[in-house]
């Protein structure tokens, strides 16, 4: 399987070659892979920011413990979860479903009520964590797509979310910076690329029940 070979090739790139950029065509493929990610109920309760502005990235680097990937990578991707889930989010999904499947909106009302009921059962904190987890599903698609395209990537949790939220004006949009990824091309100076992967063996990782 080429897919497995590509996963073996990828690693969390620590040093990017700042002179190399991801092509617009490949960036569109990565965006499509993110768009096709699985999400709970299919609601996609997140937004994905692609940060290219050098001045903004310099500010975000300070809020990312000074990690060079933030400024040296070709693109900085910020996955933002919605901080509050509203009935309007479900209604938007239902309208798109009705249009895409060419069915009457009234035929989806029962499913809509079910989703709203389950979501409204959550506390505010539970809802926040739920939407944040959805971003990791999208992140997984990005990492796999990059591996297929032989584009390097690094998922990152080492950043100050509140500072990101302030710099990017996310709070007033009902968003929160949940997880970050940098994409581009590895530097030959990144010695991490030569280290064998450290993973649990099958016998420890998997258990048949």
From TrEMBL:
Supply the InterPro entries for this chain: NfsB-like, Nitroreductase, Nitroreductase-like
Leader peptide range in chain numbering: none
Necessary cofactors:
FMN
Q: Which domain of life is it from?
A: Bacteria
Q: Which CDD domains match?
A: NfsB-like (cd02149)
Keyword annotations for this protein, in alphabetical order, are:
Flavoprotein, FMN, NADP, Oxidoreductase
Q: Which GO terms describe its molecular function?
A: oxidoreductase activity
Pfam families found in the cross-reference section: Nitroreductase
Nitroreductase domain location: 7-184
Q: Which PANTHER family match?
A: NAD(P)H NITROREDUCTASE YDGI-RELATED, NITROREDUCTASE
Family, according to the entry, reads as follows:
Belongs to the nitroreductase family.
> Which protein, by its recorded name, is this?
NAD(P)H-dependent oxidoreductase
Record organism: Zobellia amurskyensis
